[in-house]
Amino acid sequence: MVFAKNESMLENTGAVIDQFLKPRGLNINVEKTEVSSIEKGVDFLGFSLREYVDATRTNNPKMPDKKGVVLTKPADKSIRNFKLNISGIFSKCRNSSAYRLILELNPVIRG
Q1: Domain range holding 9?
Q2: Partner of 106 at 20 to 30 A CA spacing, among 11, 43, 53, 63?
């Protein structure tokens, strides 16, 4: 993942990354490569990265380029899957003891 202030800074980035990867026997998959705005957000490996507007930074003369702060949060799809997994364990262990329920839940909650 590469972040830049504007698209013009990203023009030569692909070539530089490709030069770095070639000696290592790796290459960029052009079909999966995507250019996106950080304001819109990016979902990557179960997490969502997005820039959120921060009012304290937008009016600060010391930081004219800073509009907000980039936050990394679990992606909505990951949260939905986690909740489904937990509810499935609860329904499976409906008639079981609390000890059995805890044994089933612990590996999922810990990750």
Answers
A1: 1-35
A2: 43
